[in-house]
Design brief:
The structure is a homodimer. Chain A is of the alpha/beta class. Chain A contains 10 helices and 11 strands. The first copy, chain A, has a 5-stranded parallel β-sheet with strand order 7-2-8-1-9, with helices on both faces. In chain A, strands 3-6-4-5 form a 4-stranded mixed β-sheet, with helices on both faces. In chain A, a hairpin with a 2-residue loop joins strand 10 and strand 11. Chain A starts with a strand and ends in a 7-residue tail after the last strand.
Chain lengths: 244, 244
C-alpha cells in the first residue's frame, strides 16, 4: 500500500485524483464540522468552492430544507444560516437537513478531489473509523490536507500522521511519500497532546483570538465519532450503517 | 525575529516577497550546485524559470564566457553545456564564467522571490555561513523550499530546520510559523544522519536510479562552504569577501 500526502491542495490538478482513493483533512474546522453535522443527523452536505455558488445552490433547488453554512477567514458570512463552528451544528438545527457548505480552505480541497473513486472526510474525531475503512479497501490512497491559504497547517499534518500511524499498526509493507513520512514523525511529536498543539498552531491561535477556543476542545476529541462521511454524486453523505 | 517557511514556492505570489529577506533551499540539487560553482570560481549565475529564456540569454549577450547549465526532471538538457550535478561544476570548467541556469524547481523558486530585499542561496553545505549572515541582519525572514513539482521534499524541509536550529542556538525569542516549527522537528529526526535521509527520500531515490549517488554524498557535506551566494540585480553573486 502506497500512502501519499499533500500539505496543501492548491498545486494539485483536479484530474490528478481521477480513480484514486482520497482522504481530505481540515481539522480547523471544515472536516471537524462536517462530522459534527452528521453526528447530529444532517442528511447531506454539499461542499462548494465559491460563495456565489453557495448562494445559487440554496436559492431554490433544495426548497426549505437547506441551510447555508461556512466561513471566510474564520468569520461567518453575511446571509449564511451557520458559521464553521462544529458547536453550531446541533441536532435541533441540522437534523434531516441538507447543508450547502463553503469554507476558505476545506471545501475547496474536497471539491478539488471530486473525481476520486473514493473520497472520505477525516478529522481527529473519526480517525479509527477512517483507518478501518481504508484497511478494508486495501488500496493506495492520498491524504489531502486543506492547509491554510496555500501554506502548511501543522494540525492537518499531525492528523494525517495519526491516520497513517493507525494503519501502520495493522498493516506491514506500507510505502510512504516524503510528506506522509514527515507527517508520521510530526504526529509522534505533536500528536501526544493534540489539544495543546491546536492551541499553539497558527490557525488555532487565530481561532482563539476570534473566540473559538471551545472549537479546539471539540476538534481534539480523538475518535469521538464512528462515522465516515463520503463524497459521492455531488454531496457528502453517510453511505452505509457504520458502527464501532 | 519571525521565521516563516514554505515547503513549495508554487502558491506564493511574486509580490509577497517585496522587501523581505528570503533564503531559497533546493538541496537536490540546484542550491547545492550553485554553491559548488562559486566554490570553484564561477563569476555569476543567472537563474531562469524557462528553458526558452535560458537559450535566449546565452545567444549573444554574454559573449563567449557564458555556460548554459541545468536539468529537466533530473536529466541534462540537450544543447546545454552542463547538467545539474555539483560535481560537473569544477574549477577548470566554471572558473571566471557566467552560468545561465535552469532547473525544474530550484531556479523557479529563486526567480519567484526576485523582489526580495535580501535573497540568499542555502544548502546543507553552507548553513553556518547563511545563519551568521541572517543573525547579522537580524531581520524577520522567509525560507522557501523548492520542493518537488509543487509537493513537499523532505530534504529541503530538514535543511530548513537545520538552518533555523542554528539560529535558535544563538538567538532567543524566535517566533516560528507552523512550517518552520515542523521543519525544526523534522531536522531533529532526519538531520542526525542527513546522508541516510538523502538516500531514502523520494528525490534522492530518483537521483540514485539515474546514477547520481555521488551528488548525494556531496550534498550531505555539512558546512563545507563559507560562501553565501546572493541574488541581486538579476544574477546570483558572491557579494563580498566572506571567511569563516
Amino acid at each position: 500500500m502506497k500512502i501519499s500526502c499533500w500539505f496543501t491542495y492548491n498545486n494539485l490538478e483536479e484530474l490528478y485524483f481521477t480513480g484514486k482513493t482520497v482522504v481530505v483533512i481540515d481539522v480547523l474546522r471544515a472536516t471537524t464540522t462536517i462530522i459534527a453535522a452528521f453526528e447530529n443527523g444532517a442528511k447531506e452536505i454539499v461542499p462548494v468552492n465559491a460563495i456565489e455558488f453557495a448562494m445559487k445552490a440554496t436559492s431554490g433547488t433544495f426548497g426549505g430544507k437547506t441551510l447555508l453554512g461556512g466561513e471566510r477567514n474564520a468569520k461567518k458570512i453575511e446571509g449564511f444560516n451557520l458559521g464553521n463552528s462544529p458547536l453550531e451544528y446541533s441536532a435541533d438545527v441540522v437534523s434531516g437537513k441538507s447543508i450547502v457548505f463553503f469554507t476558505t480552505n476545506g471545501t475547496k480541497a474536497i471539491v478539488k478531489a471530486k473525481f476520486a473513486d473514493h473520497l472520505f472526510i477525516a478529522s481527529f474525531n473519526n480517525i479509527a473509523a477512517v483507518a478501518k475503512k481504508l484497511l478494508e479497501l486495501n488500496l493506495d490512497f492520498d491524504i489531502v490536507c486543506a492547509g491554510k491559504n496555500g501554506g502548511f497547517s501543522l494540525e492537518d499534518a499531525v492528523c494525517a500522521g495519526k491516520l497513517i500511524s493507525e494503519i501502520m499498526q495493522k498493516k506491514d509493507n506500507v510505502d510512504l511519500s516524503d510528506a506522509a513520512l514527515a507527517s508520521v514523525k510530526l504526529n509522534d511529536v505533536f500528536g501526544i497532546d493534540f489539544y495543546k498543539t491546536l492551541t499553539e498552531c497558527e490557525h488555532g491561535k487565530l481561532l482563539i483570538e476570534n473566540g473559538f477556543l471551545d472549537d479546539l476542545k471539540y476538534a481534539a476529541n480523538f475518535n469521538s465519532s464512528n462515522l465516515v462521511p463520503q463524497f459521492s454524486g455531488g454531496s457528502i453523505k453517510i453511505l452505509e450503517a457504520q458502527s464501532s
